[in-house]
Amino acid sequence: MLPLRTFARPLRSTLTRQASIAPRQTVAFPNQLAAAARFASSCCNGSDHSPPTATSKPRIMAGSTPKDVEEYLKQSHDRIFENNRKWATQKKEQDPGYFVSLSAGQSPNYLWIGCSDSRIPAEQITGLEPGETFVHRNIANLVVNTDLNVMSVINYAVRHLGVKHIVVCGHYGCGGVKAAMTPKDLGLLNPWLRNIRDVYRLHEEELDAITDEEKRYNRLVELNVVEQCRNVIKTAAVQQSYKKNHYPIVHGWVFGFNDGLLTDLKIDFESMLAKVQKIYNLSDE
Ligand SMILES: [Zn+2]
Question: Which residues, by range, are in coiled-coil regions (predicted)?
Answer without folding.
Answer: 193-220
